[in-house]
Amino acid sequence: MGDGFVVRDSQWGTPVDLDYSLALGLAAAAAAILGSMLGLGGGVFIVPLFTLYLDVDPKIAVGASAIAVVTNSVVGSSNHLRNGFTNIRLSMLLQISTAIGAIIGAIIAIWVDASFLKVVLGLILVYSAFSMIRSRKKVYPNAPPDAPDPLALRASFTEPTTGGEVCYVPQRVPVGVSISTGAGVLSGMLGIGGGVIQVPMMNLVMKMPVKAAAGTSAFMVGMTAVATATVFYSEGKIDPQVAVPAMLGVFLGASAGSTLTKRLPTDRLIVLFFVILTYLGASMILAAFGLNPFG
Amino acid sequence: MMDTISPDTLATDSRRVTRAAITVLTFGWRISFAIIIVGLVLAIVRDEPLAAELGRISKVMDDLAGGHSNGFLGLGILVMILSPIVATATIAVNFFRIGDRRYGLISSTVFIVLVVSIAIAIG
Which residues of A touch B88 (CB under 8 A)? Predict the structure, then answer.
């Protein structure tokens, strides 16, 4: 790929090209910035970027993407946890239903038409995008100290842009757990990360601040991607010439993304989320009808 | 029971669990990248070509024992993959240590589900 500076020829694979490695790293960094800021794994950006623009074999791209998603989650979460954006108790509670849903989804995927599922997911994403943008100016009041919290999920963080303390108790937890199971089923069926569903769900249904939703989701997507990454690793289908630049790019992108999350006002973060969700939703619906949004 | 714990106590306890998770995740990516950088330096110094595929874990271990860059890269990637699993186990242990049995059990279940899903996936 490319005609840049070739370091050496590999007796097993393609020549290692520094320009190409740099392009892979930069693409992964861009995906990780968005992924880390929005609580997504970044795989929805990495796979199309690698396959459509950098000529990476799809199977190699998916394996590298799974490792990149884990890297994004590990690096980004260590920062989000420091900033108080990750609700560990809630992430564990939702992860059980998400993981079980993903297993069920993977098992029943063979009986359900993938195009139908893509349309359903696409509509959910577009609906979530418009719901989030409509309520972006709405500020949830801080939870009072005596607010009911039967599941001990209360959490707080300092909003870096205002310096104010944000205290919240996630609401309608059983509904959230149910939606998480559904998100897991869709993840298992369509091979996507659950972040695109989890973040709007936590914000709109559980009334969590967007930064807390993104921080909690960022931690969860790493756990979800571990199984996929392990499959590719155990099968030996990891190309270090693709995976290593992707990991290094993700490291830089995840660090920058979690710093930007801290500095960016919440309503701008929601606008960014609106753009990404609308794009992904429209892409899903178009893909279901055999139309490639990348042309 | 956790229901009767005050918000301040809950926050203090949560900070202990959070600190443990931060430590594991931070060590995870630092060790992973340190091993990967050793692999890259070895590849450059020895003019050793990188493989197009890492190969199965037994090959990665053989390469590592032989001091080949491929082995270091494979080990570094493995450390990164294992970090969220170790973090989950650490979170479970720390919930039990602060006396929060409910979330200790929930985190342990997440850990078991992760291990089982990996076993099914590899299976």
Answer: 92, 223
Residues 6+ apart with CB under 8 A from A285: A118, A119, A122, A123, A126
Q: What is the pLDDT of residues A145-179, one digit of tens each?
A: 778 888 889 998 888 888 888 999 999 999 999 99
Helix (H), strand (E) at residue A155: strand A155-158
Please determine, for the modelled complex, whether the ipTM score is greater than 0.85. Answer: yes
Largest CA distance in chain B: 63
pLDDT tens-digit map of B54-89: 888 888 889 999 989 999 999 999 999 999 999 999
Question: Which of B55, B80, B103 shows the shortest C-beta gap to A67?
Answer: B80
Q: What burial letters (b/e) apply to A232-269, b meaning 16+ CB within 10 Å?
A: bbebbbbbbbbbbbbbbbbbbbbbbbbbbbbebebeeb
Which residues 63-92 of chain B have a CB within 8 Å of chain A? 70, 73-74, 77-78, 80-81, 83-85, 87-88, 91
Strands (E) across chain B are located at none
Q: Do A238 and B74 touch (CB under 8 A)?
A: yes
